[in-house]
Amino acid sequence: MSDVRVAVLFGFGINCDHETAAVFRLVGAEADRLHVNRLIESPEVLATYDILAIPGGFSFGDHLGSGRLLGNRLRFALRDPLRDFVANGGPVIGICNGFQVLVKTGLLPGPPAGGDVTPDFEQRASLALNESGRYEDRWVTLEFDPESPCVWTKGLTRIDCPVRHGEGRFVVEDESVLDRMDEAHQLTVRYVDPASPKGEGRTDALLPYPISPNGSARNIAGVCDATGLVFGLMPHPEAIYAKWLHPDHTRYTAPEAEASVPVEERSLGEWEGEGLQIFRNAVEHVRARSG
Amino acid sequence: MHDVRVEVTPRLDGQAVDVRGNVVKARLLQDLNLDVARVRSICGFVVRSPMDAAALGERVDDLFVDPIIELGRLGSAWLADAALFPDAPDLVITIGFKPGVTDNAGSAALDGLRTLFPEARVEGAGVATDLTYAFYGLPAGADGADIAASLHNPLIERALIQTGPGSDGWTLLGYPERPAVEAQPPATVDLEVDDETLIRLSEDGLLALNLEEMQTIRDHYRDPAVQASRTALGLPPHAPTDVELECLAQTWSEHCKHKIFAAHIHHRDEVTGEDSEIDSLFKTHIMRPTLDMQEEMPWLLSVFHDNSGVIAWDDAWSVCMKAETHNSPSALDPYGGAMTGIVGVNRDILGTGLGARPIANTDVFCFGPPDWEGDLPSNLFHPSRVLRGVHAGVRVGGNESGIPTVNGAIVFDDRYIGKPLVYCGTVGLMPATLPDGRPGHAKTAEPGDLVYMVGGRIGADGIHGATFSSLELTEDSPSSAVQIGDPITQKKMLDMLLEARDAGLIASITDNGAGGISSSIGEMAEQTGGVEIDLAAAPLKQVGLSPWEILVSESQERMTVAVHPHHAEAFEAMATVHEVEATVVATFTDDGRFLVRHGEEVVALLPLEFLHDGVPQLRLESVWSPPEHPAFVPPEDADHNALLLRLLARPNVASKEDWVRQYDHEVIAQTAVKPFVGVERDGPADAAVIAPLHGSSRGLVISNGIVPRYADIDAGAMVVAAVDEAVRNAVCVGVDVDRMAGLDNFCWPDPIVSEKTPDGRFKLAQLVRANRELERMCRAYRVPCVSGKDSMKNDYGTGPDKISIPPTMLFSLFGDHPDVRMTATSDLKREGERLYLFGRCRQELGASEVASMLSEAGEAAGIGGTVPSMDDPVAQREAYAALSAEIAAGRIRTAHDCSEGGLGVALAEMCIGGRRGAMVDLDGLGLDGADTFGQLWGESLGRIVIGVEALHEAEVCQALEQHGLTLIGLVVSGGRLVVEDGFDVLIDLEVEEMVEAWKAPLALPVGGGR
Fold this sequence. Notes:
The complex is a heterodimer of chains A (291) and B (1010).
Chain A: E1 5-10, H1 17-26, E2 30-35, H2 36-41, E3 51-54, H3 68-77, H4 79-87, E4 92-95, H5 97-105, E5 125-128, E6 136-144, E7 158-165, E8 169-172, H6 175-183, E9 189-191, E10 220-224, E11 230-233, H7 276-290
Parallel strand pairs in A: 1-2, 1-3, 3-4, 4-11
Antiparallel strand pairs in A: 5-8, 6-7, 6-9, 9-10, 10-11
Chain B: E1 2-10, H1 19-32, E2 38-49, H2 53-57, H3 60-63, E3 70-74, E4 91-97, H4 104-116, E5 126-136, H5 144-151, E6 157-162, H6 195-204, H7 211-220, H8 224-233, H9 242-251, H10 254-257, E7 264-269, E8 275-279, H11 281-294, E9 300-302, E10 309-312, E11 317-325, H12 327-332, H13 334-350, E12 357-367, H14 383-401, E13 405-412, E14 421-431, E15 450-455, H15 465-468, H16 487-502, E16 508-511, H17 516-524, E17 531-534, H18 547-552, E18 558-563, H19 568-577, E19 582-588, E20 593-598, E21 601-607, H20 608-613, E22 619-624, H21 640-649, H22 657-660, E23 671-673, E24 676-677, E25 683-684, E26 688-690, E27 699-705, H23 715-732, E28 740-747, H24 760-781, E29 785-791, E30 795-796, E31 803-804, E32 808-817, E33 834-838, H25 849-856, H26 873-888, E34 894-897, H27 902-914, E35 917-921, H28 932-937, E36 944-948, H29 950-960, E37 965-972, E38 976-981, E39 984-990, H30 991-999
Parallel strand pairs in B: 7-22, 12-13, 17-20, 28-29, 35-38
Antiparallel strand pairs in B: 1-2, 1-3, 2-5, 4-5, 4-6, 7-8, 9-10, 10-11, 11-14, 12-14, 15-18, 15-19, 16-18, 17-19, 20-21, 23-26, 24-25, 26-27, 27-32, 28-32, 30-31, 33-36, 33-37, 34-36, 35-37, 38-39
Helix pairs in contact in B: 1-5, 11-24, 13-14, 14-16, 16-19, 21-30, 23-24, 23-26, 24-26, 27-30
């Protein structure tokens, strides 16, 4: 039995639950796939977990806007347990559809930094239809804000991973929201030109399709809340948990993972993929906190 | 109940964009060449519930509207709002569903409504959705009806066209009201009539039964024992009820019983003088070879009798695969037909053994040319629209189900205008042994088990699908045979049933597909020897269904599951958590009877034996004489640069990237070789490689082979090439050739000689030759067919304008891969890599892509000539084994097979994937009979181009030399492909020029959606 327990939600069309649970296990956590309704049935169960993950998928077929209907189920049935989970320091990640759910429930980006940052379930941003007008599966390059308070992205500079969505264009009502988020380093991860020097790719100027696959404001791929505990992103870091999933692995040019543990201690050794460190960060954060 | 209309439209301020409107604007430009200045979109919801407008109004922003990017309005049209819609549009089109058609967005909205308003959980509540487009700056002369026609399918949707508000304002679509229908009590059908009337009964009732079959049914009711048992239950003793007749028609349909593959055939060959009898092509050429091989292959766990074939994989897991077609529904409604195709084959996997998890989809489509400019028969869509609709259906079905689409193909030929072929395949993974010790691949139903119908409800949609697909398509083909899938309902059911499997609650499981519960429960009843069904227990989508309709309806998203009574409570509790409907509709017995009640009344009684084995064997005639084609003579002084660029732009060869990228090919985090490879991730992959167990690099290979062109010369050669192509593709990524299994999927034009099919004997002879070659190849390659399917009526129309598809067999393959870290892809990797051709070039240009291209353009007389063949498949298998072993050992990282367009196109694709040039000299290839033209463009089987690094060259050469290996070139630093033949330069092209030629033809405009 591991010391860190992760709840990975599933049901109603979430479909990345198996691999999301698997990547947490690969970094030493215990992960349970937990049906949304089992959580609603016994909300107190949430407090027995250290980390909450909302994986990708097509909850309710993305009808009425991606993440809206599952977001409502959480918002109305689990409001207090979710607020307490974050207020008590529990890391939460939403990937792809999970990110959409966190945005529609208002957990992301959450109340502005500097004030009371307890979740208030107010929607402040959205993920709109891609400007291309279509769903696409393609690999993108991401860079992280090194000063972000996000507990999930510590030590990461750049990774490649796939996007697989039709509604990933991050938008807000007003540019000032982005300015405030940027100041607080909540614009955690952006799409960057893979040809740019590593560490220098992030820019506010809109990058062309398909470098930015959806037309997001400031090339935003993912954001965190003011506490840095709640993190959501459209791309799929779990889909590059192993180097053999990188399209360049047969070319011997797949990038090495930037991991905080030595190669020989990683469960996949030199075949660890770049995405796994995100999940390890959260597990290590929980350990350090309780340690 | 109140009907309240809610409208939602994108905001115009801030960062909002009307993407839906932009997509329609781009589509009109593409489809109708109409350049509209602007299109705005409005989503409409008609909410039928106990809540009135005031109650709903308070929560509109919680449910229907995204406050950041949208605006909502209650009760009236946004178009009437002068602030948001200040200018009058030139045209307004609203599209909604017809009554009874599945409205997935509406169902989701209802679910969301019930989250907010528990009081909406009442029968009769519902939400209907529609989409309104407002067109501004419409070019003069643009026709509203034309625009509407390109935006909807009248079979399932309604369109409202307006050019301005009426005196009462804008007209709005209302709730799609179904006309009230009353259930009819079971009728008795008198079969003691003359033969002509029997035939008419079959035709008028869409039963698709022939005279002999109708007579067999009539004779059954003449049996005094049968009459006595019927009298005892209060059934008409001398004649069937409509329930019985419909049930027999479904069970005995070509679709379900494969009567042509089971037929007794008298075969004559006018060339060799052969005159022989064949008792079932299936038993002789498909089943027998597999059973023979099974004696030496203990890893073949379950073949033919289940919903898919199962093979052992590692100690803990078994894998299964199934492919099916959904051609007729896809012709009538490409989107709905294809979506039900993919989610339907997913259910075959879920219904295998005690339940398998679908982990990968493959999609192979055959369409008319997307740029077709000729006539179209009435009732048929333009091929480009079929492509778009089928693609969208498979995309939504696969993506929303969370199953990656890892491999596929699109083939174009004029004759597929008459009937598109939509092959959907799925691979599944199941535990070798369940926690309770039962093997995962075997069913364990017992008498007394409860039979649950799980998932969706039964509706009037999908009645007669099985019999309809056993008939040719005509103008009058029924719309009730068309359905739209509901992937989310199915996903919920899948989650629930796999949890039930692991908890040991499932005794047996099968899919509800063609023939509805009459087929699913009827087939399952054979496991215990009988069943008693109560149709009144089955949950319905709407009132008014008659008993026979409930029994045969093919409404989607349903599984039939047998559960031991002591597990019933746990099973139902699990269904409740997952919000899946599960209802007991039958009980298994062992009395040999298929007994159907509707409440207290018995409405059908059929002996199981008669139901399953009563259908008389067809006796068919087959005569082979080879078709004659003008010979293909290669042009003298061919311009090979131009030929290569033209071939790369052929729809059969050109990149389908913009289409395929819309499939999720990576969900489950397992896809190690994706559909696209290379530096720009746009080179073609030969086969998919997946590593489905997270953390393990143990893999599976999935590939396909399909070459319908060769059937124009010989359907046998077509099958040989398809099998070889599937295996060849798998070898390119390093499959373990000792662990491969195949699926045969035949799509044929009607091969039964009749007034409407005067050439039936020839078409049947094509089928005979195809099957014989299938057996020869499978035995030699040691690839057992573990599952298959046939669709035998792929014709449009009956008169002189009848269009028949070319005989087509798709061969799908799944096999083991020892370690996905050691695999190869088609892209050239590094400067200095040495290029070898593995295999031999013969002068085989008959029915080749280049022959078709040049004869279509009038530059060659015809396509006739020597079609590619495989004389010694045993030796070829040894060669493949040697090559695959080198790849799996990590010594070869670059490999690409030669298929359409031969070596020339293969080399070009390798350069494209690597964005690198190559220097190639064909001089060494001259020993096997091909001239330069044949070497470059011929399509000899068994050939793979490999790239080898200097470090491994000696070892690779030593291992492969004896199997035919020729050094042909070198990867170079510049961006040019140069192909020479000794001293003559044949091809000299920039890689970027080839990229452009290859990618442009089927590209989609960015911003234009699909």
